[in-house]
Amino acid sequence: MSLRRLLLATVFASAAAAACPALADDAATVEELLVTARRADRTSEGATNLPLSLAETPQAVTIIDRDFMDRFGLDDVNQVLSLATGVNVEAVETDRTYYNARGFDIKSMQVDGVGLPFTWNVVGMLDTAGYEKVEVVRGANGLLTGTGNPSGTINYVRKRPTNAFRGEAELTLGSWDRRRGEIDVSGPFSASGQWAGRLVAAVEDKDSWLDFNSSRRTFLYGVVEGQVGERAILTAGFTWQDNRAHGVLWGALPLLDTGGGQTEFDRSTSTSQDWTRWDTESRTAFLELVYALPADWEGKALLTYNDFNEPSELFYVYGNPDPSTGQGLFGWPAKYDQSSNATLFDATVSGPVSVGGRTHRAVFGVSLSKSQSGYLDYPAPADHPAWGALPALPWAGDIIPEPVWGAPFQAANWTNRLNRAFGAAHLDLTDRLKAVVGFNAFDVKSQGVSFDEPMDRDEQAVSPYLGATFALGAGVSLYGSYSDIFEPQAETDADLRPLGAAKGESWEGGLKAEWLDGRIYAALSLFQAEQDNYAEYVGLNENGIGYYRGVDTRSKGVEVELAGRLAPGWTVQGGFTRLQIEGPDGGDIRTFIPRKTLVLATSWTPGWHERLELGASLRWQDDIHLQSALGTIRQDAYATLNLTAGYRLTERVKATVRVNNVTDEKHLTSLYWDQAFYAAPRNVQVSLRYGF
What is this structure's pTM? Predict the structure, then answer.
């Protein structure tokens, strides 16, 4: 039995009888079926639910594909988005992250172009092993996830089965005892290719530069796709990710002392204890049916179910240390068992429409979603030493024993529903002028309680979308777009009552260019957004729950982006952003967000030695600060440089060495809150990849 047959028999045991004969002949041709043609020409429709190129899309779009992620060793979403133009990754704690663009939190997420309502922060590291690419559409677009937000939308595009057999395995070792193994196997079950499958698995175990911190992540993704009859394609998939994190940060280092001066610690300093944990387990199943309708129209229905569990045992530290003694810090132990489940149904019909002798494309759809969330609170005894005064930092991981937790009580339980209808059309008005018009009508309802306060809301709105592109010639086009902002917000005020929706308008315009048969893409974007009642974080209430206030804001700026192959063997991708964010009085707000950022990544394979590949990535941001009643917290401008060198030992084996934070820059991960921790110092990763 060949290696190919053995691997497929192992991975797809249920289909072994069909798979093995098909793989015995490597030269077997795949019949021209509907499903094989679709696999060979997959097109992401994340920006508008229409199959548009970057140049045809009237918004700024960044795509980070699989080759880019593999080249630079981007194994989690935080690493990927840190190299996306205009995106800031706010790692506020070891296991909780927020993202923002154009001055505001990114609250819109998609998988395969289908919106995930009410999902806007990441708890636990999201592994990238199961994704073919990550797309970031910047600016407001209510067509994407049902609500308009001027920051942007992140679209995770899953890996799908391939027409030909292929497989890869990779082993990575790195600083702080990092060990990671990954395998990706895909191929047809028969010579016709009528049914095919793919399996991706990854396991990662590592310690940390932070005291007491370690984590283990397991990821599994499987998908089967096949043709049913002459017109239907059925796809079923399942994703499981399990994060086990210990010695975690809940909150982080105090950044101001009692005199208002900024504190300084070693990069390894942590406020955690070694008994703390923050585990997450996510299971997602999906079933997709695509049907070829007459006249080249297509119908698609998707049913997705997600179950998420987040048990944690945490230790929060608050207060401000005395600049001389380091005294003045106090503890807050907590144990929670948070869980949620969500069901999403999305259905669309799309296809060409001939009007006035020209062919246009249209899409219409409905989306129905429901999520149920809640958590149990396990109180710690009132006389436990964790509630008392703490010694000066740094400290040992066992200075506070784990409490004997009391019986749990239901702290929160609520339900969210989002139902929407939407439509969009790509209009071929002239040979040079194209337009995208659309609407999104939605109804959002929430019911439930959090710490005895109601979480009820009931809001409806219709948001229009209008965009256009005009070809100027020589591969250059002018574009512009407008979208309403109506963002239902789950954030609550100091009394834990919902703030209500943020409302406003968003405009964007600029130039896009594609040169050398599409090998080089460049864009210049000008943007502006105004919104009222935007949720801004204030602090913690007496129950330790974060609360917000509504502020009126105005954001404007410019982005420049370049991506492509500049010469044989030389690729580049990156962009520059300049931003202004103002409050109602015209003064700067949200000053924890950098006003200028630059990301740049490049790789080079020299023509005189094609087995060698060299690469570098750079992220720079200017200075940021956060004002509090006690003083001002500052982070100076800094740049992080990563280098990579790969060498193809054989046609199937490639070795890569990566050095991250080459200059050993010391900086805080975020000023989103008035607590933070230090980013990783210089570290090294070595990987060996085998293709079969």
Answer: 0.91
